[in-house]
Each structure stands twice: as structure tokens, then as C-alpha cells.
Amino acid sequence: MAETDPYRNGREEMVEFQIRARGVRDKRVLAAMRKVPRHLFVPKDWERAAYEDRPLPIGEGQTISQPYIVAVMTEQLDLSPEDRVLEIGTGSGYQAAILAELAGTVISIERLPDIADRARQNFARAGVTGVKVVVGDGTEGYPPEAPYDAIIVTAASPTIPEPLVEQLAEGGRLIAPVGPRECQDLVKLVKHESRVETIPLGGVCFVPLIGQFGWRGEEGP
Ligand code: SAM
After folding, report:
1. Which residues does the entry assign to the active site, renumbered to this chain (predicted)?
2. Is the CB of residue 29 less than 8 Å from the CB of residue 71?
């Protein structure tokens, strides 16, 4: 059969050399990263760079995250097919498309309406169904569909927004970049009956999470 995806080899190499070689082992995560066509989630001018080992611009000062970081955050969520997942920061929609391969329900909140529209177009182009995109301030979570088995925050805030911890189910996992404006610590929370366990996962650099329980504006908290 004729090869129709010119980026298939690039995607295989991305998984092998950027992701598996750095220690991501979850077979379902690796399969999702092999399957989802990342080049359909970046602006046309950046398409040839889609499988490089770095974040890329998607407009309005926002980015699609580095593939390795997407894989690590997804692996840490430890998803099951029935899980309900909330993503804060839809951006290109790529991370949500990966989540949709692994979980039952994916809701993704984006603050900027134009970015949300583009993500919806990207889902249509890539044939991704089952992601609900909501425009709003994701630092408040999304109470109508709470609680969530997993919450992933893909923009950085000074502290973890409290509404997100409240909307996490028992046994739920939350992953978020937390710390200063430029670069942060990736932090995982696991909610147990009477306490929240905090696990540090290393350094990352994300664009700011702007909202009531994040950074308050372009200039600071
Ligand atoms: N997950 C994205 C992807 O796969 O392309 C990358 C997300 S990008 C690094 C961060 C996104 O978070 C931006 O699109 C930005 O507009 C959005 N954002 C920032 N603050 C937000 C908030 N309070 N609520 C929802 N989205 C927010």
C-alpha cells in the first residue's frame, strides 16, 4: 500500500530517540505518540519542524509543548480507558488528542477564543473526536463535569489553583508546572482520603497560566 503520511518516519524517530530513550516506557503512551499526527497541530509554516525536540510557536505568544514533555506528563497521569480528564490550556489541541487516545472523557479549557477555534479545526483535520473544548479561565476548573480522575495543567502558575485540587476525584492525579514566571518545577499531586501527596518531577519552562488562581495579568500576580 502506498505511504500517505510523509511524517511517519519522523514520528517513529521522535518516539524512539526523544521519548523512549529518555525513559518513558508506558506502551499506551508510546503508541499514542506514534499515532497522533503532530504536524496537523502546528501552523503550516512550522509543519516540517513538527517532530523536532522542542516546543513550537502556535500564535498569540503561545506554544505547543516539546513532545518529550507531553509524553512524560501523560505517563505520569497513569490513565485508564474510563478516566475523566480535565486539561487546562488547550493550545494547539495536541496534548488533548494524546489524552483522548488513553482516557474515556477529555475536557480541555482554553482562555483565548481564537486559539480554541484553531484547536477545534486541528481536531477536525486530524480526525480526533471526543475532546470537548471550553473557552474560559481554567484556573477555576470546570465544575459542571467534576470530579476528574486526572487533571493536567499545561501552563505555569505560581501555585496550584485550589479549585483544581477540589475538583480532583479520590485517587485522582494532577500534574502542573509550578513556580516562577520563566521556568518552574513539574509537580504531581495524588489525592488520598485525607491528604494530598506531592511528588516533584523536575524542571520545565511553560508559558504563564493567566487567571483568577494563576498569574493575574501579563505583568505579574
Ligand atoms: N496543551 C497545549 C498543546 O498541546 O498545544 C499547549 C498549551 S500552551 C503551552 C498554554 C496554553 O494555556 C495557551 O494556549 C494559553 O492561552 C492557555 N492558558 C493560559 N492561561 C489559561 C487559563 N487560565 N485557562 C485556560 N487556558 C489558559
Report:
1. 65
2. yes
Q: In DSSP terms, which residues pair with 178 in a beta bridge? A: 157, 185
Count of structural domains within the chain: 1
Q: Is residue 210 part of a domain?
A: no
Tell me if residue 25 falls in helix, strand or coil: coil
Ligand 1 centroid to residue 42 C-alpha, Å: 14
- Please tell me whether the overall predicted TM-score, pTM, comes out greater than 0.90 for this model: yes
Pair 191, 172: CB distance under 8 Å: yes
CATH of the domain at 165: 3.40.50.150
Tell me if 157 CB under 6 Å of ligand 1: no
CB 108 near ligand 1, within 6 Å: no
pLDDT digits (tens, 9 = 90+) for 126-146: 999 999 999 999 999 999 999
* Residue located via cell numbers 470546570: 142
Domain range for 31 is: 8-204
pLDDT score recorded for residue 54: 98
Catalytic residue, candidates 65, 92, 108, 157: 65
Is 157 known to be catalytic? no
Least confident range from 27-31, 42-46, 214-218: namely 214-218
